[in-house]
Amino acid sequence: MSKRCYYEVLGVERGAPPEIIKGAYRKLAKEHHPDRNHGDTTAEIRFKELNEAYDVLKDDQKRAAYDRFGHAAFENGGGRGANGFDFASSFTDIFDDLFGEFTGGRRARRQNRGQDLRYNLEITLEESFRGRHAEIRVPSAVACEECHGNGAAPGTTPEQCPTCSGIGKVRAQQGFFTVERTCPSCRGQGRVIRHPCKHCQGAGLVQKERTLAVEIPAGVEEGTRIRLAGEGQAGFNGGPSGDLYLFISVKPHPLFQRDGHDLYFRAPISFVTAALGGTIEVPTVDGARAKVTIPEGTQSGRQIRVRGKGMPVLRGGGLSGDLYVEVVAETPVKLSKKQKELLRTFETGCGPGCQPESEGFLAKLKEFWTGGADA
Questions:
Q1: Per residue in 280-337, pLDDT tens?
Q2: pLDDT band at 124 (very low <50, low <70, confident <90, very high)
Q3: CA distance 277 to 296
Q4: What is the pLDDT of residue 334?
Q5: In what order do the strands lie in the sheet with 117-123?
Q6: What is the pLDDT of residues 143-172, one digit of tens each?
Q7: For 77-106, how does the pLDDT look when each residue is reduced to its tens digit (9 = 90+)?
Q8: SS in 3 state form for the chain?
């Protein structure tokens, strides 16, 4: 039976770049891998065909020879090609090249990095403005002091696993395939502990609550994440510790609303101040006061900016946002009879242009109704 074209086997064009060839192989190899197709001889044959094709096309010299001479370039009897290539013996190298990130490498002893930890810290808006020094208590796994983290009782040491010779993995030949699995004796650690430490039960780690001092920089926002490198769970087998991530939440403030680096403050004013203008004092987040000038004829809802009185910009070199004061003209209630008469007199004597927004609105209504009547 004649062999299929290697490009056809991988489903790629003859001039396909290496990354396309590699991607096609990865996809098809996963699909037809024997571990996913137990007892399927067709998948096994297809998987062998894929590996044979990929080993040739991934190598520039072999690919050039194949492009020129086809399969004849590798016909030298048995499973070996013209260059002495042995498909069976090289399969493991192909598998490690493509799937090494899943297997962890063939001879790498497992030094597991410790888990990352999360700590939620709630602060006030004022603390976010100034920054804060905080001490937090974090329960985490740390290296056992009794055995110095190796899991063996004092006076003893872990021994190399006799089953895998310290590799952490074992291999078995299954026909054409070489299957690599985690060592069942040491569970991938590459070592065994004959006499476990009584303090940590051989784990090498114990739970302990630690007190950490952290600095919260000025300007942090809701959801800010601060990474404390190496302050997470201790690693196994001497592996590095994980990290601690501090997640910041900011309590709602009774006066200020925050949007990025800017603050918003709602200030009720009398309708007289809105009409005639004036000056009001508003608080700032640092506890001070700021004077705000209300222009004559200010409409309710207008925002007046106070520069530099917002929140500091995180790592902004001293820059700060602004404070926006939203003025709301308050309608007076519980008026006396005389006050009502004065207001009616004012309304009667109010000429064109006195209330431009109302006048404009009424003009639009009149135009709308007039147009509707004509229609």
A1: 999 999 999 999 999 999 999 999 999 999 999 987 788 999 999 999 999 999 999 9
A2: very high
A3: 4
A4: 92
A5: 117-123, 244-250, 225-228
A6: 888 888 888 899 898 888 898 888 888 887
A7: 433 443 433 333 344 444 444 444 344 444
A8: CCCCCHHHHHCCCCCCCHHHHHHHHHHHHHHHCHHHCCCCHHHHHHHHHHHHHHHHHCCHHHHHHHHHHHHHHHCCCCCECCCCCEHHHHHHHHHHHHHHHHHCCCCCCCCCCCCCEEEEEEECHHHHHHCEEEEEEEEEEEECCCCCCCCECCCCCCEECCCCCCCCEEEEEECCEEEEEECCCCCCCCEECCCECCCCCCCCEEEEEEEEEEEECCCCCCCCEEEECCCCCCCCCCCCCCCEEEEEEECCCCCEEEECCEEEEEEEEEHHHHHHCEEEEEECCCCCEEEEEECCCCCCCCEEEECCCCCECCCCCCCECCEEEEEEEECCCCCCHHHHHHHHHHHHCCCCCCCHHHHHHHHHHHHHHHHHHHC
Q: Which pair of tokens denotes residue 159? A: 């021994």
